[in-house]
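User: Fold this, then the next.

Assistant: Folding the first:
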Amino acid sequence: MPAANLRVVPRVPEKFALLFALCLATLLAGGCEGRNGGLQTLEGDSLDTAGKVLVVNYWAEWCAPCREEIPELNAFYREQKGRAIVVGINFDQLTSEQVTEQARKFEIEFPLLAAAPPGRWGQAVPQVLPSTFIIDDRGQWRQTLVGPQSVASLAEAVAAVHPQ
């Protein structure tokens, strides 16, 4: 056999192989949760969203329509606990302490997420506030509601993806 046909295969250092294996294991383990699973509140609690529609509201302190919408979101959260879960995400990505203070100030009763789930539901961060994502009980994005919502409009959006 001529020597020109032989190839030298570079050896992967063991450190890199181990690092790759650990990263792969972490990714696989994280992918075992449901698409809605793994949402963490500001308090560090995990939300159980199995079988429920997720109503994800993006809000900010400086957004007057967001502040006006909060009582409607609170009422919907209280009325729909068994069927839908309302969660809020602060658009400005403030610290947990700052968001907690704003939540107290605006009397937000529904859970607030510690951070926006990156790439979750295949949607970009909204550029208009308030915006509300409707995520069905299988973890799939179904609709984005733009502007302040009422209990009735939220109930209609949830009913469209999860009839009783």
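Now the next one, as you asked:
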Amino acid sequence: MSIEAFDYILLEDTFVFSWHLSTDTLTFQVLASLSQAHPAATVPAAGEWACYRSGAIEFSRVSAIRGLQSQESVVPTTDPDGSVDYGTIDGLAQIGPGEYR
């Protein structure tokens, strides 16, 4: 089942900068790729094909997480401009009430 909040965000082109798990909240800091239909989208910057905006993806009231590695155990990618990221979001789907994969 799709997640309406991400209808106009291209997750496969959204870069992850970091993630943090607190007591019951999981937060990803990202550079989101917005489709032109997104209300905050602007014309892409010179040399880019999409509009990018910094943001956070936050899951609150988290009770269990499976398969998420600690950020310290993942090797980041350093781009030619020197920026560091952990790749893009391959996919995100809601599989039940409050349950995501």
